[in-house]
Amino acid sequence: MIVVMAAHASPEQIKDVEQRIQDWGYGVHPIYGQARTVIGATGVPEADKGRYMESLEALPYVEQVIAILRPYKFASREIHPDGTVIDVRGVKVGGSHIALMAGPCTVETYEQTWESAVTCKEAGATILRGGAYKPSTSPYSFQGLGEEGLKILKDIADKLDMRVITEVMDLRNVEMVAQYADILQIGTRNMQNYDLLREVGKVKTPICLKRGMSAKIEEWLQAAEYILLGGNPNVMLCERGIRTFETYTRNTLDLSAVPALKELSHLPVIVDPSQGTGRRSLVIAMTKAAVAVGADGLLIEVHPHPDKALKDGAQSLTREHFTQLAADLRPIAAAVGRSI
Ligand code: PEP
Ligand code: MN
Prior knowledge:
The structure is a single chain. With 340 residues, the protein is an alpha/beta fold. The protein has eleven helices and 14 strands. The chain has an eight-stranded parallel β-barrel, surrounded by five helices. Strands 2-3-1-4 form a four-stranded antiparallel beta sheet. Strands 5-6 form a two-stranded antiparallel sheet. β10, α6 and β11 (207-210) form a beta-alpha-beta unit. It binds phosphoenolpyruvate (PEP) and manganese (II) ion. Phosphoenolpyruvate binds next to loops.
């Protein structure tokens, strides 16, 4: 870390800061400038950095303390230069192949999920999505079928040789949901639920960590760090749109986050254009764009009868739309050196 001394700091005060850093056992590298002195402190362990930074920042003769390394270590590409490929029971997420994850927003009935899943599978999806525990803004809207929904998902996915991605909301349910799911989704509303993040860090089931709707990229990577630090290395990040002043779209799908994350992190990046736009026509266009900017996977809502959907009908693709979209994506993927 770098300590920027205040312009008025006296030689004694500079000495004091140097002494503190030395007493903590770290290297001291001062640069005495004309107007200001800057002190580099080397060897400070990640776990102690925050505490020391705060204590130095509290001194009136210190202007600023800057961390040099990023505040997430295990999520950073600096310590893991190659992109991570996650093995979801034989289906790879990351690498040259783009994973298609599709299915209904919510598991409503066996038939509805089956009809969606069959089309998704035929069009090339390898991972079946569907919510059994739904985080709803309104307590009056459908909350999901719970474990019954998980059984439906698992049964259908097994019959079609697909993997299951589904959301876990409650840390008390992690182990139970993991018995049915191949990927545990952490929803946007729970990205900073640190108890839940710690809990999913204890299992080995791959995690799809959605971006908090108001989260900065750095906060999102720090949330991923909780899971990685807990011992679960299988984390993928999912851009699903953020809150901006725009209300025409449900969220603002931040596709610039995809290449940004690729620079900063080794973790696979998924894009969810369904929650990201809220409108079917836009989902189609933004899915294509997601492939072009380097997404490693896509999470798309498909419903056999969107007009009858209990949730998110307006953003759900019909089966015909999805089949067409999957075909249209292939040349785009090929153009950027990927396959679907
Ligand atoms: C969903 O995938 O249906 C969902 C509720 O996602 P998010 O947490 O991104 O809103
Ligand atoms: Mn949804």
